[in-house]
Design goal:
With 142 residues, the chain is α+β, with helices and mostly antiparallel strands. 23% of the residues lie in helices and 39% in strands.
């Protein structure tokens, strides 16, 4: 079965049902405004600052409800054709996931892949989905 994609809504596009993992893995593209024009580096820095707050809450001995991280670092810069991206490993509990952040003129794209725990762990599959994520191009980019 070929991959299928959802209809875009609220700046999110999900592509799922890949041939070797059915509903258990997907790639999504989420757009966020880059109103400060700081680019991907500033966007990722904000994310990591928020994650540091989660760390401090979880380390507090008075904490009774712990919070999951969304990402964990360190950030990994990657070259992509005429653009530059930044990878962050995802922290979804029992799945495998990572996000690639790419800056455009006025927006940041987060290209995320996720492999559910019901899919047998496969580094090759994660590598393939990561490669697909790195093919992202902004409209009009060469």
């Amino acid at each position: 079965m070929p991959a299928t994609r959802s209809r875009p809504f609220d700046g999110l596009l999900v592509i799922s049902r890949f041939p070797n993992c059915g509903d258990y893995c997907w790639i999504s593209v989420r757009l966020a405004a880059d109103s400060a024009r700081g680019g991907a580096d500033a966007h990722v820095a904000r994310i990591l600052r928020a994650e540091a707050i989660v760390d401090s809450i979880n380390r507090d001995p008075r904490t009774i409800l712990f919070q999951f991280h969304d990402y964990h670092g360190p950030p990994l810069p990657v070259g992509m054709n005429s653009n530059r991206g930044i990878w962050l490993a995802g922290d979804c509990g029992d799945c495998t996931s990572a996000s690639l952040f790419v800056a455009g003129e006025r927006a940041i794209a987060e290209i995320e892949y996720s492999i559910d725990s019901r899919q047998p762990y496969s580094p090759r599959l994660a590598c393939r989905l990561g490669y697909v994520a790195q093919t992202f191009r902004w409209r009009g980019a060469r």
